[in-house]
């Protein structure tokens, strides 16, 4: 499973941070960070979700008020 985070869309509500430890609050920028993620040419951050953290990662995407987070299964199908 992989998670994609469009940081430019993020409005800094930090609900994702509350739901999954994969995200961190960046108070200076007023946005969340996804440490360890690789940035694509489009400015989207992509990270493979560690085993055992799938539920939390998926829930972090579900609570994002601006849909800045997407989750994909191993076949590339979007879950959230």
TrEMBL record:
The keyword DNA repair does not apply. The keyword Iron applies. One of its GO terms (molecular function) is iron-sulfur cluster binding. Keywords: Electron transport, Iron, Iron-sulfur, Metal-binding, Transport. InterPro entries: Fe-S_cluster_ET. It holds the Pfam family Fer4_15. This is Ferredoxin. It comes from Halalkaliarchaeum desulfuricum.
């Amino acid at each position: 499973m992989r998670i994609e985070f469009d940081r430019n869309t993020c409005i800094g509500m930090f609900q994702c941070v509350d739901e999954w430890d994969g995200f961190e609050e960046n108070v200076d920028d007023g946005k969340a960070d996804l440490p360890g993620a690789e940035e694509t040419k489009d400015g989207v951050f992509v990270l493979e979700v560690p085993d055992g953290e799938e539920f939390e990662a998926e829930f972090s995407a579900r609570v994002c008020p601006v849909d800045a987070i997407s989750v994909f299964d191993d076949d590339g199908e979007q879950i959230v």
